[in-house]
Amino acid sequence: MRRKIRKSVMMPSVLAAYSAIMYVWLIPQTDASPTRIFWTIVVNVLIIAALWWVYWYKEKRESSGKGPGPEGKV
Questions:
Q1: Per the CB 3.0–4.6 Å rule, which of 17, 36, 38, 54 could disulfide with 32?
Q2: For residue 73, is pLDDT > 60?
């Protein structure tokens, strides 16, 4: 039986891999300053961390039996 990969692990990992590939491909082709490149990477890391936290919090809430939250109600 296969173990299900949690979204809080899979989604940020996929985004981080995609971002790393794009940076490796695009940074040599750009004439942006090192400071701008640094802050772009910092913002990207913060977005990935926020995505991880949101999915982690949602999984924790669902596993504790409180339900999907207000977005799940109709």
A1: 36
A2: no
